[in-house]
Design goal:
The complex is a heterodimer of chains A (425) and B (241). By secondary structure, chain A is of the alpha/beta class. Chain A has helices spanning 7-17, 20-42, 47-63, 65-78, 89-100, 112-116, 119-125, 135-142, 159-170, 178-195, 221-227, 245-260, 303-308, 323-327, 329-334, 344-354, 357-363, 372-376, 383-396, 402-414, and strands spanning 82-86, 105-108, 129-132, 198-201, 205-207, 212-217, 231-237, 241-242, 267-271, 276-277, 285-286, 293-299, 339-340, 342-343. Chain A has 20 helices and 14 strands. The longest helix of chain A is centred in the first third of the chain and has 23 residues, at 20-42. Chain B folds into 2 domains: 7-113, Rossmann fold; 122-238, 3-Layer(aba) Sandwich (Rossmann fold), CATH 3.40.50. Chain B has 13 helices and 8 strands. Chain B has helices at 13-18, 20-32, 49-53, 57-73, 84-98, 108-114, 116-120, 146-153, 179-182, 184-195, 197-202, 212-221, 229-238; strands spanning 7-10, 37-38, 78-81, 104-107, 129-133, 159-161, 206-209, 225-228. Classes of the chains: A alpha/beta (425), B alpha/beta (241).
């Protein structure tokens, strides 16, 4: 195989490497994150036990993912929500487009799963206007970029650049102090929430028995999005399903300290079916103050296949806290180019199943398999082992860079990777 | 067997060919200790680590089988390595490939630690503040954290300090996993994440490490004296300060 497949992704990696602005944004975020996380974990000695329990919950859930999907579908239907199972990204997009229709105003809260299926462009192509309302996602949307971190999508944009983006949006100069920047987003998005026809959220974990979606956030935008518009559509990967409410609460307690260095996030919304009331003659009517309709799209898109691989299935345990990214030495220097929608070592595995295989085959050669991610992961997911396994799968399909092929040939012919001739004694 | 009681010092490609000072110093130190050892000279070859890290399992398998036959047929039952990559590969991956542990494998830091009593009286002072860099393959992957530190502390007058992130949380030098060959630009930037602010915060003038790849890559990042553990101990033994 020629090496042309390498070039575009290689260029992207090196562009990131040479961009001091993006490096500055990431460096500032890493410093703030590590200090906050160390503080939070210091106050949560019980987390040592909790994270082990969560690991067991995830192991059990992934081993019976099919059954949990069936159970979730039934539970959501029971509470008058509309469940869907989308086998792949195209099917998920079709489901969304058929619910949303055309000419609608759509507000979204952060969902990497929606990025995975390239939802925004599908909705826009169908003639809708879509606003991201998470501040980081809003910045990324305005800058026409891709998210570069699963929790902090605009991690690579320093405040000075945010100010430039907002100045362009408003047609006036905006100060680059962070509180003012937050104020700009708040003022701009306020009426969008109330005027929207449809609100789209993700879900961090779902209790299969009750069909309850757990949406964790700090900004309060997901509450607006899931509550103000008449229609709420949630999308979540089928690996997010756990058996019970109490299992889900354990996940909810584990995520925030590792995701953002807080004991618990500002808001955890639990959504079980559409809004309803029975205040008049005990007769249930759907659509009181909240949405009249709740649609839940459960996305497979490679997850069932991932679960079948004895080594790579561990990636499905990932809670998506993103902590490993802040701790990854390679992510520090190449940021959002280190993967495809999902980043870092574990992101390479996710990207291989859900994104561009070619991009993964290039970016994987930037992973040192140092194992720091495994060390800081609350679930101790063995990322270096998975990356090595994935690398070997890719290599067996011909994705070996010229450099690595040369090394291999040198080893076979000359006994060392450098191709140096050695005199045998 | 002919070589029973004799150890095989497996230098590894990096120490043998690119960072020769590491292999030469290690041999000199083994000589001073009166260790009964051999090397395989120019016939040593590759341990297969590089192949495993870059996804070339079949080639790695054949190398592992070849090396096992070569080393076993010569009668060596103890192998000592300079490189944590060779150490990890031979001690934890050969047994999976071969189906049994073909010989004992130790890292040079473990070997020297076991013979520390023989070194103790010979070490001369080095007046320096040094920081130890944990190689990923030796530390996180194989759990060897304390032996190198104990050996550094044996050198009189040395002040051993720690990086903020050390042992299991140590930062990676950037060279491992085939990154150095695929993306040298990325490898050196990752190394600078150690030789920049984290190193300055320690106030150390020397980084001691025990991996030829870390050594090479941290040197590439520049601006600091990087020295392999046996090199450092040899410097102290010879009193060349």
């Amino acid at each position: 195989m020629s090496n042309e497949w390498i070039d575009p992704k290689r260029r992207e990696l090196l562009e990131w490497l040479c961009d001091p602005g993006r490096r500055l944004g990431i460096d500032r975020a890493v410093a703030a994150y590590t200090a906050a996380k160390e503080g939070a974990l210091g106050r949560l000695p019980e987390m040592e036990e909790m994270r082990k329990e969560v690991r067991k919950i995830k192991e059990g859930s992934i081993s019976r993912m099919d059954e949990l999907v069936r159970q979730t579908v039934d539970s959501i239907a029971d509470v008058k929500g509309t469940p869907y199972l989308a086998r792949d990204a195209a099917e998920a997009r079709r489901i969304f487009c058929s619910i949303v229709g055309t000419g609608k105003l759509v507000v979204k809260s952060k969902s990497l799963t929606s990025e995975e299926i390239h939802l925004n462009s599908a909705l826009e192509d169908a003639g809708n206007v879509v606003y991201e309302t998470d501040l980081g996602e809003f910045i990324i949307q305005l800058r026409k970029e891709k998210p570069t971190h699963i929790i902090n999508p605009s991690v690579h944009v320093p405040r000075e650049d945010v100010a430039r983006t907002f100045s362009k949006l408003l047609g006036r100069d905006v100060e680059s102090d962070i509180p003012s920047l937050v104020g700009v987003a708040r003022a701009f998005l306020r009426d969008k929430f109330c005027n929207a026809d449809v609100g789209i959220t993700g879900a961090n974990v779902v209790s299969a028995k009750t069909g309850t979606l757990f949406i964790i956030e700090n900004e309060g935008n997901a509450r607006f999005v899931s509550n103000a518009p008449p229609v709420h559509i949630a999308i979540t990967g089928i690996e997010k399903l756990v058996p019970t409410l109490s299992d889900a609460f354990k996940v909810v307690q584990t995520l925030p300290p590792y995701a953002s260095g807080v004991l618990i996030s500002a808001y955890v919304s639990l959504v079980t079916g559409p809004s309803k009331t029975a205040d008049i003659e005990k007769t249930i009517v759907y659509g009181a103050h909240g949405p009249k309709e709740l649609h839940v799209v459960l996305l497979d898109n490679g997850r069932t296949e991932m679960a079948k691989d004895p080594i790579l299935r561990e990636a499905l345990y990932c809670l998506r806290c993103g902590g490993c990214l802040y701790e990854c030495p390679v992510y520090r220097v190449v940021g959002g180019s280190f993967g495809d929608n999902y980043f870092g070592g574990i992101g390479l595995v996710w990207s291989a199943f859900t994104g561009d295989e070619c991009a993964v085959a290039v970016a994987i050669d930037a992973c040192t398999k140092c194992g720091r991610c495994k060390e800081v992961c609350p679930l101790e997911i063995d990322v270096p082992k998975m990356v090595e396994h994935l690398k070997s799968n890719l290599a067996s399909r011909g994705y070996v860079s010229k450099k690595h092929a040369e090394m291999s040939e040198n080893i076979m012919r000359k006994g060392n990777p450098f191709g140096i001739y050695e005199r045998r004694q | 067997m002919a070589m029973a009681g004799k150890i095989l010092y497996w230098r590894g490609c990096m120490s043998r060919l690119k960072m020769k000072g590491i292999a030469d110093s290690t041999e000199a130190l083994l000589g001073l200790l009166g260790a009964n050892y051999d090397t395989l000279g120019g016939g040593e070859g590759c341990c297969g680590s590089v192949l495993l890290r870059t996804g070339q399992q079949d080639a790695a398998r054949s190398i592992a089988i070849l090396n096992t036959e070569k080393i076993s047929s010569l009668g060596y039952s103890d192998v000592v390595t300079s490189c944590p990559g060779c150490f990890k590969t031979m001690s934890s991956e050969y047994p999976i490939i071969i189906g049994r542990a073909p010989f004992n494998v130790t890292h040079i830091s473990q070997f020297l630690y076991r013979r520390r009593a023989e070194m103790a009286g010979h070490l001369h002072p080095i007046r320096a503040r040094v920081v130890y860099h944990d190689p990923c393959h030796l530390g996180r992957h194989m759990g060897v954290y304390e032996e190198p530190r104990a050996l550094i502390r044996m050198v009189p007058d040395v002040e051993l300090v720690e990086f903020k992130y050390n042992r299991s949380k140590a930062l990676c030098c950037g060279a491992g996993g085939g990154v150095r060959s695929a993306f040298p630009e990325i490898a050196v930037e990752v190394a600078r994440m150690i030789t920049g602010a984290p190193l300055k915060a320690t106030g150390a003038s020397i980084i001691v490490t025990s991996c030829p790849f870390c050594n090479f890559n941290l040197k590439e990042a520049g601006g600091v004296d990087v020295i392999d553990l046996p090199e450092f101990l040899l410097r102290s033994w010879r009193g060349s300060e």
